[in-house]
Structures are given as C-alpha cells and as structure tokens.
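batch_manifest entry 22 of 60
target: Polysaccharide deacetylase family protein
source organism: Clostridium aestuarii
requested by: lab member K.T.
priority: normal
notes from requester: please return tokens only, no post-processing; we will run our own comparison against the previous entry in this batch. if the run fails, retry once and flag.
--- input ---
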Amino acid sequence: MNVDSQYIKPSTLIINANTNHKQIAFTYDSGFEDNETYQILDVLKKHKVKATFFLTGIWVEKFPEVAKRIAYEGHEIGNHSYDHPDMVNISHDEIVKNILKGEDAIKKIIGVTPCPLFREPFGSWNKKVFKAVGAAGYKYSIYWSIDTIDWQHPTTRVIVNRILRKAQGGDIVLMHISGNHTAEATDIAIRNLKAFGFKFVTVGELLKH
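--- output ---
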C-alpha cells in the first residue's frame, strides 16, 4: 500500500466518550496466547452484552475458531496490530505494514474488517504513530479511561474494584483475554454496573455520542 502520509489525516486518539448517558464499553485485547476467551464470551452471552475485542493478527491465526466465535456472537472487532510491537520504536512504514498485515489476517479468517478501530500495542503512541495509523486507514486510536491491569493476574476482587471505583458514563474499560480472573470479574462487574443503571455498548456505539 503506497500512501503519501502528508495527505492523510492522523488517527484520532479516543480515551473516553463525551456523553451524559450512563453508557460504558468493555474492551478485551489479545496478544499471543489465549486463556479465558471462551469463558469471557460465555459471560457476555449470559448478560446479553456486546463488547469490543482488539485482536492481533498472529492471535487470530493461532486461534481461528475462537476468533470466529467472537464475530459470530456479534461482538465488535478492532485491529491490535499483527504481532504486538511497540510502535514508538519502529518506522512509519513498518507500522503501516504491521497494521495492514494484522488487518489481512482478521479479514481472511474472520471475514470482517476491523476498520476504523485500532488500539496501539502497550498503549504506546506518539505523533509518528498516529500519522502511520491514519495512513493505514484507521480513523481512531482507541485508548482507555479505566485500566484493570488484569494482565498482572490480580484477584477478581481487585479487577472488579478497579472498574466500579471509577465507572462513569463514556468510559472505555481495558481488559485482556489472557488473564486468570477476567471472566469472573466481568460477570461481577456487569451485574453491579447494570444495577447502577449502566448500559453496555461497543466502542463504535460509544463514538456516536
């Protein structure tokens, strides 16, 4: 893909949504391994909640059936690169190539496009990265306003408290499918947030506000 980056608008950083509505988006990132995806999907299905999954191409290639289930059950899919590099440390062209390789893997295996949602690996970004993400065709760089830090494998209670303590309308919650207690924490958090009057939406739906 040959794109003259000076004519492409940089990707827009999204941390949360500006909304007066009690809406919240749960997001789940993949990397290289799979641990709790089936359990997370079971929980989301039980509560009739749609979430946004940011998938790496290498993960989709390794776990195609799980990836297909995510799409089949109506969840939103975003691009999380091909193999999770820190994009601050690679060149513009390498960033674009990596993003498009991830996109191709997702399209080939799942049959959907992850555009226009991209999440930078490690949440690592700068102006160069945003320009490259835009050049790859992605309008939005999706960050988060609540980080559960579940990749460090804290207890279920800790994950839930990190969500409930901060939750407000327009929040984007970061979780991972490789955690140990993420599925259980998702179950408890959803029940509590619903009791507080929150509605669960995808990132794409959140961006409409």
